[in-house]
Please model this.
Amino acid sequence: MRIAVFAGDGIGPEVTQQAVRVLEALALPGLELVEGDVGAAAYRKHGHPLPAETLAIARSCDAILFGAVGDFDCDGLERHLRPEQAILGLRKELGLFANLRPATVFKGLEDLTTLRPEVAAKIDLLIVRELNGDVYFGEKGVRILEDGRRQGYDIMSYAEDEVRRIARTAFTAAMGRHKRLCSVDKANVLETSQLWRDVVIEVSAEFPEVHLSHMYVDNAAMQLVKNPGQFDVIVTGNLFGDILSDQASMCVGSIGLLASASLAEGTYGLYEPIHGSAPDIAGKGLANPMATILSAAMLLRHSYQMEAEASRIEAAVSKALAQGVRGGDLGGTAGTREIGDAVVAAL
Ligand SMILES: NC(=O)c1ccc[n+]([C@@H]2O[C@H](COP(=O)([O-])OP(=O)(O)OC[C@H]3O[C@@H](n4cnc5c(N)ncnc54)[C@H](O)[C@@H]3O)[C@@H](O)[C@H]2O)c1
Ligand SMILES: CC(C)[C@H](C(=O)O)[C@@H](O)C(=O)O
Ligand SMILES: [Mg+2]
Model:
């Protein structure tokens, strides 16, 4: 088992350290962890947020455990040197096109949500976010118009094969769950979304057992708060998925709880919390490491088919929460290390 550990910036190293402790506590056979630099930390050391050495480490491993990147001091750098390019570059270079972001309420812990507990109680959804296309990777820039005004632009596009492969991932996920798939788009305005919708409908013929529905993204944002229990699997593009997953995290309780898997074809994957480097609390030992710990569980499940070990980690997180071990993000007082201790003890 050879796993790359890219901790990154801000709270990245703090939360990753706790996830590593949990992995080590499982005494996994032949576990080898290989650290690499990413983000602002890598830029300062190597002059690039995703150095060639780091990419080589990623390629030499079976999976990546990723913390977070981002540093407001680097916001003035040319875009290709900004810390976020590390995660965008890894996703693109490694063909990590399918981002799974599950959001499930912890049984008995419905009080964690910012929704009414009876509304949140039914949340058990999976957001399948396309990760290699959309406005994220289109042509972009700032140009000068003829009349001298500056104009920023980012081209949104999806090719049909890109939609087809993420649709297949989502339909397959739905087959393993409650067989309901909601495709979220903005087809009433965007041509990119109309093609997205047409292709998702084409792919649905391959999965006759799955009930497919469509929803505009603005409505989806509203429905996630009104009645999140209606969703089983949501499939959507890169930008809409980014936004809706942060929103879903608060329906469950906190952004410090939501894990993710970014998968290529096969078993290779990158696993990271959905949150960022949280500069406002970095270095203070206040960050909730549970999202990263749960990402390590997803790593064992998807890249190593270690279902028992993955479930063991998830149960330990639930147990720690049920014991009242809660970070500041959940209104508690437990620090990063203390939460890690509690999860390790609950394994
Ligand atoms: N995948 C990634 O590496 C990733 C993801 C999102 C944002 N970012 C980057 O992170 C930086 C900060 O962005 P932001 O502030 O918009 O988003 P953020 O997710 O870092 O933080 C948003 C808010 O949530 C809180 N928060 C986040 N994670 C937490 C945790 N584990 N425990 C407790 N509280 C937590 C933060 O304190 C902050 O108040 C930016 O540079 C951004 O580009 C990186
Ligand atoms: C940091 C940023 C590039 C990233 C994204 O937009 O995908 C983040 O918000 C995420 O959710 O992983
Ligand atoms: Mg995001």
In short: The mean pLDDT is 97. The first strand starts at residue 2 and ends at 8. The longest helix spans residues 160-175.
